[in-house]
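DM from R.C. (forwarded with permission)

"hey, sorry to bug you on a friday — could you get me a structure for this? deadline for the figure draft is monday and I only need the backbone to look sensible"
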Amino acid sequence: MIRGRRAWATAIAVLTVAGVAPTGAYATPAPPEIPTATATRDTGNALPPGWRIAGEKGRNHLEWRAPQPVPVGDARVEFRANGELVGVPEQQDDGRTFRLPMDEVRAADLGDLEVEAAGRRLDEAPGAGASRRAEPPAPKLPPKLPAGTVDPGKSGTYATTTGEYSLASVKLPGLPAPVEMRGVVVAPKKAPGKRPLALFLHGRHSTCYVPGRTEDVSGDWPCAKGSKPIPSHRGYLRDQKLLASQGYVTVSISANGINGQDGDVEDGGAQARSSLIRNHLGRWADWAAKPASAPATVRKGPKADLSRVLLVGHSRGGEGVNRAVMDSLYKPPAAEDGYRSKARWNIRGTVHIGPTLFGQNPVPDVPSLTILPGCDGDVSDLQGQVFTDGTRGVSQGKALHSSVYMVGANHNYFNTEWTPGQAQAPADDDFWHDPEARDPLCSPGAAGRLTADQQHKVGATYIAAAARLFVGGDDRVRQLVDGTGRRAPSADPARVLTHAVGGNRSAGFLPDDPQGPLKVTGARLCDAVAPGRSACLGEKDPGSSPHFARWRPEHEAGRQAVALDWKKPGTAARLTPKKPVSLKGAHSLALRVAVPPNTSGTRFDVHVKDAKGKRAKLGSVKIDGLPGTDRTASYWAQEVRVPLTAATRAKLNLGTIASLELTPKSSSGKAWLMDAWSWKPGTPAAKAAPLARVDIGRLTVKEGDSGFRTYQVPVRTTGKNAGAVRLYVVDPETGESAGRLVKVGPGTAGIKVTVKVEGNKRYGWDKPHDILVKAVRGTVVGADAGGVTAENDDPMPKVTVEPVAADVSEGAPLTWRVSLSEQADTEIWTLAQLVPVPDGRPELSTADVDQEWLSQLVEEAPNPAIPLSKVEYGTLWTSVPAGNTSLDLTVPTVRDQVKEPAEHVRFQLTDDGGEPLAQPFEGTVRDAS
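My reply, with the result:
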């Protein structure tokens, strides 16, 4: 197929022209199913603006170029086609270009290309598609909650001391350059005894900057001469000083060396961040044992108590601290680990601030608090909600996992070094603001947006709340973080809502219960992640939900909610579990329910029925939607509780509750029930269970020249107990995945996936055979993705261009034949640039060629006509289909009535950057009269 190349639809060609090019040149192949066009006008099949196929060092890349630099962030940038994951590109040094090697493309069809980061379109302007006739009204903020009995945001009684240490860098697996071992310490002065330790890890941000040059930032590591490392680790000094005043030793560590090298790491750097954290904790354990060996700044504070550790991670740092907890309890594969020693510490809890969780693999038995910024423009899908939701049913359920939704907070302002006006290096507001389509909730100056100082204050308050609850054991703090509906006055004027799972919640109604699904009438079980009608949120629902953040498969089984949609009051939704549940000993039934943003007055009556059919109304609940827009993830479940006293009075058997009913009282509406639990006050002790750990590896093999070879995907399972995971096997041809439950651990067959690789002597793309895994019951998952990659081991075919009809009369087509030395299993593209004809000879003009063909080169036919070499998009590319060996490149000419001399057209074969690859070739059109 042949078409003109618009500015965005380019392919590299490394060609030989018969008789003139040097020998040994090769073609660069095209990706699977790249849309192409014939000579007729069909611009709908072009690659979208900003996209092209680019070549570098003999390797093709699918490339997208942003209109402006994209700040280095924590959300994983993904290329998607037709809604399916194509791959994870690497950001280039210019900050605008993202490239994915074509041999890593996972989708067979590259139609409808998109660029996403945490569910947000990067290749679409903020507010695109929205009406700009009038700015929508500001959403109503939630009411101010009653104050709690304690306020962890208040400073303590200790003065503090601050200093830094810098140790020898460490080499971590998978990263070429060593990673720094640097930390800023803030500790209490004159605090008696050993003190608990809080360790902070920042997220993924630009690594280097040139002082005085606002645009000169990069993601390099190490930093180039003349530039300085961005001190991201110093962005939590206010949080550290608050904790230190309350008696904690704190350290915030630098991870620029990981941020600069994790662009193409399969897990986004989670294992490397865990290794870095544990390297620091290992040093702190050494210093606690031998205080005289500690750096001077550490010796200025009290001795750290490594049996009481809190980890705090921002963005990718949040995923890093989760993996550090996992690796401390359940050993990771030695080949992937950058810290081999035994853990000499006890992590009592974690705080995740606007975190990523690409693997959706939270540790279930260590308490956590996850801050969800309502105006997050980086990790905008608020995927950190999975730190709460993803622990349900996996283990004992005693560890409290809290989600803290902060209305008006963005991603960056929790770190002063990422905050404009406070940072040493250039910084920005990460929320995706468009001055022509302001967001009424989150754009700068909107009534709902927090200032940088307000946001940092509320963040510090809830970090201190986690420390006081998880490490200090002060149960009075729990009401601030577990959905009870109390606020910390130090966080004012921020509006903060919370809910939780675990803790003193026990048996309940779980839509995706691993013991068996609920039976639902009057509503429907919906899929958190799915195409089509089974999805919990449809295309017409503006905005998104943190509960339904996408993992890797396009349709994820075993992750559900109950969707209610009623047109009149009284339409009861009944949930019946596989077995009756026990609510004995509980005070209340706690429900997590989401309603559409900006709605008000959604009301339900709540009934339960026991196994003998006795029914009781527990009470009524009212829920107002969170403030939200189409740019926020505001379909977030709020916790409401109804006491069980009515059921007791009605003499229901609370040990055998057979069903739960929600009866809408409002005239119409929608709601999504995430779960319902028996609840009582208190925070039980949480002890980590001996869970099985699963890690998926990757095996890379050569395809060979003939026959079939069978390989097994490397899977490592450790632990003394058995458990269950959900396994997905991805079809390498279609990108679709099929999932099933698999038992793992002692006494089970475990995960055994074999891959059959066919050998041949034809050039083709590397073929990944991927599998994915997620914990279901009694397991934790480290590396959640892997597989077998069959590497192409055949040379690219040589390409020649020969004239077929290069001297014709007007009205006849000029034709050249593009030939391959042999067949290939992929399309092979070539690229030829129209260039001026030398020596003053007449040149073929836009009036001399077929106008449909010309429409591939210009938006509008020029009048008067111009030489072809001056058209706007002056490149032709050809695609030799897979399995073929030749294709004709044709320039259709038209016959006119004007007597004129012979006219010429000239092509120059070029690489992607427009550099010539061989001698030009020409065609001549002679007058037909």
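R.C.: lifesaver. The first strand starts at residue 2 and ends at 5.
me: no worries. Residues 1-45, 129-133 have pLDDT under 50 and may be disordered.
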